[in-house]
Amino acid sequence: MSRFGDATELRRLGDGRYTVDLDGDFGFAKALNGGYVMAVLGRAAVDASEHAHPVSTAATFLRTVQAGPAEVIVDVRKTGATTTSARVTLVQDDRPVTEALITTATLDAAAEPTFSGARPVPDLPPPGDCLDFADGPGDELKGFASCVDLRFDPAAMGWLSGAPSGRPEMRAWFRLRDPHEPDPFVLAFAVDALPPVAFNAGADGWCPTVELTWYLRALPAPGTLQVHSGGRLVADGWFDEETEIWDSAGRLVAQSRQIARLGR
Amino acid sequence: MSRFGDATELRRLGDGRYTVDLDGDFGFAKALNGGYVMAVLGRAAVDASEHAHPVSTAATFLRTVQAGPAEVIVDVRKTGATTTSARVTLVQDDRPVTEALITTATLDAAAEPTFSGARPVPDLPPPGDCLDFADGPGDELKGFASCVDLRFDPAAMGWLSGAPSGRPEMRAWFRLRDPHEPDPFVLAFAVDALPPVAFNAGADGWCPTVELTWYLRALPAPGTLQVHSGGRLVADGWFDEETEIWDSAGRLVAQSRQIARLGR
């Protein structure tokens, strides 16, 4: 196994129930990372399905997730030849903390797109010209930085020095330190691994995600991922964040959108 | 009331249970429209909440929805001062047919955005220069056309005459015929009211939506809505579709993304 594999490993209790020991380094003191939680829920959904991949995951974050033991409950709602859909709930202290509707299917690793949109603009500078997350200030980041190697495009990191770009945006190279090559569960983690795009539109503080939906679009090639995030509207205490992940072979492998609260 | 109001009206049975009589004109023979179903689920979620608006709706379409009686079950999963989140399920013939996680909150009609992205390109031609959905071929469209006035940008309608644009796209002016001015439930309907964008990327036939998540971003002004849809990837039997709705005051009021199966 690997660090990430261990951190998302489920013990099957039967009847769609699992236990997991959540690793506190995949997140921060305030709460574990939502993408990490989605990776755990995705593994449970696939385990309870005849299909191999979590194609669609729509997660609602009800309460903050804490490190330590949790239960995962899978309630299959439809079983089909092409897809299976289930409610998947993470439970801590007898309360639902994250709930997702997950549809599994089996993607074809050899499928070629009939249409693929343009790559996000601007492209990322080479990793050596990017800001290393591990060099960031504060001990609070050390645990997370021990799990994942993130290199940020400096053009979208002005918020760190009080000069946000004015647009909701964030871009980074992403790889697990294990090393653990990308798979669909790593993508679940990666779609929510960057700081909130609203930091570049003047927000700061804790910006809790309320809902995040991500789609697996292709099986990722080995190597470093590119994560590109933007947003369309910051208003009335809410902002959206759209993320695309492109793999080392230059393919769009995951897309997500989330809605979150502005920091308070 | 209005046609749309009647078609989404719920009878409260208590304990989070409702009945509804689904209007077959809000859809086609094969299945009712997914956006219409989301409008019904959104009304139930708001009724069961202390908050006024369905801010986030993540719907999984398990089985085709048929005209006639249905039950709606709301199971509140978290109640908070700012948001309430619930599972909302449409049941027909004792089976779940659509299931959604819906988060309600109360938006401020007077809120001004601190950031708003650019309008989609290209803009729509004036309605008089657009293709009227009601002029479309076939009796199957008549019921739907009696509910909604849709005027399509001809530049993205080449698929009708066997000349698709080659890009997943679709754009239209939208208003209910009632008349019933836009509200959040009308937006739920509008985000899924256009033909699949994949028709412009060579697809045809029945393209069932598997999952659709939409966010309410502002309360819409009275008047005609602009619906802009695009997509990023068509591959391996799947395509995504992103929709933005702009109101008559020029504001982004709703955004959605769905993943659907290519027609068979």
Automatic annotation (TrEMBL), chains A, B:
Q: What positions does the domain Acyl-CoA thioesterase-like C-terminal occupy?
A: 127-260
One Pfam family name is 4HBT_3
What SUPFAM superfamilies does the record point to?
Thioesterase/thiol ester dehydrase-isomerase (SSF54637)
Instruction: Pinpoint the Acyl-CoA thioesterase-like N-terminal HotDog domain residues.
Output: 26-104
Give the protein name, as stated in the record.
Answer: Thioesterase family protein
The organism of origin for this protein:
Actinomadura rubteroloni
